[in-house]
């Protein structure tokens, strides 16, 4: 728990506690994320878990945006289906702007948690504390076989988009690959939970700038170099805990594809050379 909070965060915590306490359908308010890891600063989000009485859950879920609007000036909000979490309401409040996640759960959901959260309010503190204390805590880390089954398909996708001249698409896939594969493996190497590319710089997990080499500009040669760097980086990190069955033919087949592929629009975006230079 942080020893002190930025004023905007402290004020929002107070309002959130008051709002949950006033609503009889809600039994507890918990917080996780940067708050419990001791790294909350003025740029941090607030990650709340709101425990809802079982007989009120459907009603609360139907009107959760209305509830969020009682917490402050709600700029915008949307639900979290895109991250596989429909119980999540992702909110932006302000001014001043503050990102707040509100996850609505049943008491039984506390039996399985991804982190040990702090209880900010509870109508029955003993029951909630017992549930939180006794619940299992496990971050959804991926296995080596999970990475191996996906890595070459995703890298192949980026390579075919390079060959077609769809550089924005290839660049987007490289960013996705860093988030889903390379970042988590760098966290794994340091013995941390696999949190994508979060706080890699602050934690010094990429001291050799491996990921920087996978960032491309809108240039075919740059994209090709970035894909190659992503392949090399994955192979190095994969060696920490090799998959049970490495993918046959990789990386040779993919490297051959990249070497043979010439983007059909590779020069379309480049500044034309003066004719006198020919």
Task: Describe, in plain words, how this protein is organized in 3D.
With 278 residues, this protein is of the alpha/beta class. It contains ten helices and eight strands. α7 (167-189) runs parallel beside α9 (220-238). The radius of gyration is 23 Å and the shape is elongated. Mean pLDDT is 91; it is low at 264-278.
Task: Considering the chains and any ligands shown, give keywords for the structure.
alpha/beta, 8 strands, 6-stranded mixed beta sheet, elongated, disordered C terminus, 278 residues, Beta Polymerase, domain 2, Four Helix Bundle (Hemerythrin (Met), subunit A)
| Main sheet strand line-up | 3-4-5-2-1-7
- The SSE order reads HEHEHHEEEEEHEHHHHH
Report mean pLDDT, rounded to a whole number.
91
Helix-and-strand structural type: alpha/beta
N- and C-termini, Cα separation? 65 Å
Pick out the low-confidence regions.
264-278
CATH superfamily of the largest domain: Beta Polymerase, domain 2
What is the architecture of the largest domain at the second tier of CATH? Answer: 2-Layer Sandwich
Helix content: 40-55%
Number of strand segments: 8
Rg, Cα atoms, Å: 23 Å
Q: Please give the domain count.
A: 2
Q: What is the CATH class of the largest domain?
A: Alpha Beta
CATH topology of the largest domain: Beta Polymerase, domain 2
């Amino acid at each position: 728990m942080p020893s002190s909070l930025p004023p905007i965060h402290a004020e929002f915590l107070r309002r959130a506690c008051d709002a949950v306490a006033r609503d009889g359908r809600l039994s507890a308010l918990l917080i996780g994320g940067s708050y419990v890891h001791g790294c909350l600063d003025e740029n941090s989000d607030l990650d709340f878990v709101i425990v809802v009485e079982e007989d009120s859950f459907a009603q609360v879920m139907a009107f959760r945006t209305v509830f969020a609007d009682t917490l402050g000036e709600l700029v915008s909000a949307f639900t979290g289906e895109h991250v596989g979490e429909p119980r999540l309401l992702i909110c932006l409040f302000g001014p001043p702007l503050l990102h707040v996640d509100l996850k609505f759960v049943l008491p039984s959901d506390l039996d399985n948690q991804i982190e040990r959260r702090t209880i900010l309010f509870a109508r029955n503190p003993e029951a909630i504390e017992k549930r939180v204390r006794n619940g299992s805590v496990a971050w959804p880390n991926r296995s080596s076989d999970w990475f191996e089954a996906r890595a070459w398909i995703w890298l192949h996708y980026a390579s075919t988009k390079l060959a077609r001249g769809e550089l924005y698409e290839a660049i987007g896939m490289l960013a996705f690959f860093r988030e889903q594969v390379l970042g988590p493996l760098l966290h794994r190497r340091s013995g941390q939970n696999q949190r994508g590319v979060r706080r890699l710089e602050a934690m010094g997990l990429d001291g050799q700038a491996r990921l920087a080499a996978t960032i491309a500009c809108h240039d075919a040669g740059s994209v090709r170099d970035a894909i190659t760097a992503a392949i090399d980086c994955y192979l190095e990190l994969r060696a920490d805990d090799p998959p049970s069955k490495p993918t046959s033919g990789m990386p040779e087949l993919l490297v051959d594809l990249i070497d043979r592929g010439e983007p059909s629009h590779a020069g379309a975006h480049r500044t034309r050379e003066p004719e006198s230079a020919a």
